[in-house]
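step=predict obj=ABC-type quaternary amine transporter n=364
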Amino acid sequence: MPADHAPTTAGQSVALEGVTKTYGSTTVLHGVDLALDPGELLCLLGPSGCGKTTALRCIAGLEAVSAGRVRIGGQEVTDVPVHRRDIGMVFQQYSLFPHLSVAKNVEFGLDMRRVAKAERRTRVGEMLEIVGLSHLAERFPHELSGGQQQRVALARALVTRPRALLLDEPLSALDAKVRVRLREQIRAIQTELGMTCVFVTHDQEEALAISDRVAVMEAGRIAQLGTPEELYRRPASSFVADFVGLSNRIDGELSGERVLVHGAELPVLATPSGLTGVAGARVTAYVRPEHVRLGAAGNGAGADGADAAVVLSSGFLGPIRRTVVQFADGSTLAAQHGSEAEFRAGERVAVAFAPEAVTVAPRI
């Protein structure tokens, strides 16, 4: 993408206000409130069936809301048909026209809007340059890789200069390396154009890497809305702590505003409702693997806040290692550490914890 390429469009605000969606007796969205600033990229993140795609389809007009309102650019569009909402959409299935060239695929939306031929050529050329496909303008979809086809679909969605761009798991069909490269390109293009973007994914790494903010959805509601850093470092619930990133679930006991786990006392982000002031309450603590410290068993195992365990496995992951250990009670724990520290299966180690605040939930 040329560094001196001038932005060709700017996004507008997008909002859901108390949006509810029901199918018969089943409620898929429960009064969802969500507001995006112009030019913001927000990910709807959650497991299958949480309502994230339904929320996106309500913004697009592909689903009629049962209650609430949808606004784009401050204008209510709740009852406006999809073709009049002036949005761009990219889906997991690229849906390119097989009989049209790359350039003609990108041009299609402009042709439907009866844009003058000279302007169509100019805008198609600009967009192909932005997505890095100028040299493939005359190719046909079957002559392209999956990543190239997805960039054509992105260019087709953006060339009409929509008020917002909606992407529904657009990278899930691609292999890992292409997915990472393309998500970085999407982010760069979105930033360059100032485009407001709603990006649906179930991949938490993808959401954290690409977003200004993330809305984690659970059973048709927003469990937490915040920056990637806020969600990872200060999850608002055990669901968010468990879904965003990796967490060890460790049995513990509350002691004031701290939790006792394997001989260590860790600060608690927030005491669960109903457990405030309940000394010795049995809870589950969610501890990130990178906050687990492993050392030689002879250097304090079973003392000074460290507990003893036996290594079950240790895997090399390039710059880091992931080591799983087992305690005498049979419980296991994963630690993430620098790859220079190598532990072997069967080795006895000392386990301690970084003094980071953790999320806790009543033990079930």
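step=describe
DSSP finds eight helices and 20 strands in the chain.
step=end
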